[in-house]
Amino acid sequence: MLREAGLRVTRPRVAALSAVYEHPHADTDSIVSVVREDLGAVSTQAVYDVLRALTAARLVRRIEPAGSVARYESRVGDNHHHVVCRSCGAIADVDCAVGEVPCLTASDDHGYSIEEAEVVYWGLCPACSTADRP
Ligand SMILES: [Zn+2]
Ligand SMILES: [Zn+2]
């Protein structure tokens, strides 16, 4: 995958890419610890740089719901949406409500070439809504 994307294959890149595959929607800190389990000492900055390269090459997608740190996922290219728990920050994938990337068809694009539409559903996850009940 790295080679196809025109990236040099390095151990930190391989480790970070597999970490994102194994832990969808993980934040940078969690990815850093997974990479460290794999490779030993790696600086946070190094992992941060790798994630930026992987995101730029569109091998991973970076999402950043309001009030949350950046998170990364391997599900790229389908413009799916996310549901976020207001209480614990849990995130799940939500497919587009209507067919293929329909939300990219803006009612008025103002002449912009649009690549991505971001929809975030906010609410409480099942665990938190159960915990809230008296
Ligand atoms: Zn929750
Ligand atoms: Zn997702």
Summary keywords:
single chain, 134 residues, alpha+beta, three-stranded antiparallel sheet, three-stranded mixed sheet, 4 helices, 6 strands, flat, binds zinc ion
How are the secondary structure elements laid out?
Elements: H1 11-22, E1 26-27, H2 28-39, H3 44-56, E2 61-63, E3 71-73, E4 81-85, E5 91-94, E6 120-123, H4 126-132
Parallel strand pairs: 4-6
Antiparallel strand pairs: 1-3, 2-3, 4-5
Helix pairs in contact: 1-2, 1-3, 2-3
This protein binds zinc ion (2 copies).
**Radius of gyration using CA atoms only:** 17 Å
**Bound heterogens, unique:** zinc ion
Q: How many strands?
A: 6
Strand order across the biggest sheet? Answer: 1-3-2
Q: Which ranges are low-confidence, i.e. pLDDT below 50, for 5 or more consecutive residues?
A: none
Q: Could you give the distance between the termini?
A: 49 Å
* Helix fraction bin: 25-40%
SSE order, as H and E?
HEHHEEEEEH
Number of helices: 4
Q: Summarize the biggest pleated sheet.
A: 3 strands, antiparallel
Average pLDDT rating? 89
The secondary-structure class comes to alpha+beta
Overall, the morphology is flat
Beta fraction: 15-25%
What does this protein structure show overall?
This protein has 134 residues and is α+β, with helices and mostly antiparallel strands. Helices cover 33% and strands 16% of the residues. The protein contains four helices and six strands. The chain has helices spanning 11-22, 28-39, 44-56, 126-132, and strands at 26-27, 61-63, 71-73, 81-85, 91-94, 120-123. The strands form two sheets. The chain has a three-stranded antiparallel sheet. Strands 5-4-6 form a three-stranded mixed sheet, with no helix packed on it. A hairpin with a 5-residue loop joins strand 4 (81-85) and strand 5 (91-94). Helix 1 packs across helix 2 (28-39). The longest helix has 13 residues, at 44-56. It is flat and about 45 Å long. The model has no long low-confidence stretch (mean pLDDT 89). The structure holds zinc ion (2 copies). One zinc ion binds at residues 25, 73, 75, 80, 82, 93. The site of one zinc ion has 6 residues, from loops.
